[in-house]
UniProtKB/TrEMBL annotation:
SUPFAM superfamilies linked to this entry: 6-phosphogluconate dehydrogenase C-terminal domain-like, NAD(P)-binding Rossmann-fold domains
Name under which the protein is recorded: NAD(P)-binding domain-containing protein
Domain Pyrroline-5-carboxylate reductase dimerisation: 153-249
Protein family: Belongs to the pyrroline-5-carboxylate reductase family.
The organism's taxonomic lineage, starting at the top: Bacteria, Bacillati, Actinomycetota, Actinomycetes, Kitasatosporales
C-alpha cells in the first residue's frame, strides 16, 4: 500500500508518519488531515512524500489505506459525513470504539481494521495488535515494527487494556524519585538514579528467553531488600487492587 492517509495528526499520527518515512529510501505517499496545522505542516516540510490535504474527505480520496487517529471523545462528529468507498481500507487506532460502532458512524462497506500502534512506531519498534486480520494492514504495521493480529475483538480489548498501564508505570517511577528527594537527595540525582535503574530493567526485558518471573528472581536475594519490598508493598491486596482496576478498564473498553 503506497498511499496512506491519516485523519488526526496528533501524537500517534506523527509517530506513524515518522516510522513510515524517516530515513526510508522509498517511503509511501502520506496524506494528512489539515487539523493540527502546525504538526502537519512540519511533517510535510520534513518528508517530501508527505502532503497536507484540504480536508478529511480529501485525505480519503487520495488514499488506499485511511488511518483514523482522532481522539475517542468526539470521534463520531469528526468522522460523520465522510464518504469512504469499498475499495479503501480503513484502520482505526481510536481506543475503545468497536468495529460495529465505527461501521455505523462511517456507513461504509470498506474493510475496517482496528489497531493499537505504540509510540515506538516512530522507531519502527511497535508491536501493533490488529483485528480483524488483514494482510495489507499487517504489512503496513510490519513496516513499523511487527503486526500482532488477534482473531477476536474481545482479545483485542485485553491488549488495549494493557496499553492503559503505561503512565501508571511512569508515575510509579516519579513517586520513587519524589520519595528520595523528600529524604534529602537532590532531585536531579534521584531522577538520574531511578532512570538508570529502570533503563536496566528495559534492557533485561529484551531477553525473551527469560520469563518475567525469572527476571524478577534474577534481581532478588532471598530475604533481601527487593523481596522485602515486593512482599510488603506489592502484597495480595495491592495486586488485587490492580487486577480490579484492569477488569474495570476492560469492561469500559469493551
Ligand atoms: N498516543 C498513543 O500512544 C496512542 C496509541 C494507540 C492509539 N491511540 C489512539 O489514537 C488516537 C489519537 O491519540 P493521540 O494521543 O495521537 O491524540 P492527540 O495527540 O490528541 O491527537 C489527536 C489529533 O486529532 C486531531 N483532530 C481532532 N478532531 C479532528 C477532526 N475532526 N479531523 C481531523 N483531526 C482532528 C486533533 O487536532 P486538535 O489538537 O486541533 O484538536 C489532534 O491533532 C486516540 O483515539 C487514541 O486512543 C493513541
Amino acid at each position: 500500500m503506497e498511499r496512506i492517509g491519516i485523519i488526526g495528526v496528533g501524537e500517534i499520527g506523527r509517530a506513524i508518519v515518522a516510522g513510515l518515512c524517516d530515513g526510508v529510501e522509498e517511503p509511501p505517499e502520506v496524506y494528512l488531515s489539515p487539523r493540527g496545522a502546525h504538526a502537519a505542516a512540519e511533517l510535510s516540510q520534513r518528508y517530501p512524500s508527505v502532503q497536507v490535504c484540504a480536508d478529511n474527505q480529501d485525505v480519503v480520496n487520495h488514499s488506499e489505506v485511511v488511518i483514523l487517529a482522532v481522539r475517542p471523545v468526539g470521534h463520531s462528529e469528526a468522522l460523520a459525513g465522510l464518504r469512504i468507498g469499498s475499495d479503501r481500507i480503513v484502520v482505526s487506532v481510536i481506543a475503545g470504539v468497536s468495529i460495529g460502532e465505527l461501521r455505523q458512524t462511517l456507513g461504509t462497506d470498506a474493510p475496517l481494521v482496528r489497531a493499537i500502534p505504540l509510540p515506538a512506531a516512530r522507531e519502527r519498534r511497535s508491536v501493533t495488535v490488529t483485528h480483524p486480520s488483514h494482510p495489507a494492514v499487517e504489512a503496513l504495521f510490519d513496516r513499523l515494527g511487527e503486526a500482532l493480529p488477534v482473531a477476536d475483538e474481545a482479545d483485542f480489548s485485553v491488549f488495549s487494556t494493557l496499553t492503559g498501564t503505561l503512565t501508571a508505570h511512569y508515575w510509579y517511577l516519579a513517586t520513587l524519585t519524589d520519595w528520595a528527594a523528600r529524604q534529602g537527595i537532590p532531585s536531579e540525582d534521584a531522577d538520574r538514579y531511578v532512570r538508570s535503574l529502570f533503563q536496566g530493567v528495559g534492557r533485561a526485558l529484551g531477553d525473551g528467553t527469560r520469563s518475567l518471573h525469572q527476571l524478577a528472581g534474577d534481581h532478588e536475594t532471598p530475604n533481601g531488600s527487593n523481596e522485602r519490598l515486593r512482599t510488603t508493598w506489592f502484597d495480595t491486596a495491592n495486586s488485587e487492587a490492580l487486577v480490579k482496576a484492569l477488569d474495570a478498564l476492560l469492561t469500559h473498553l469493551k
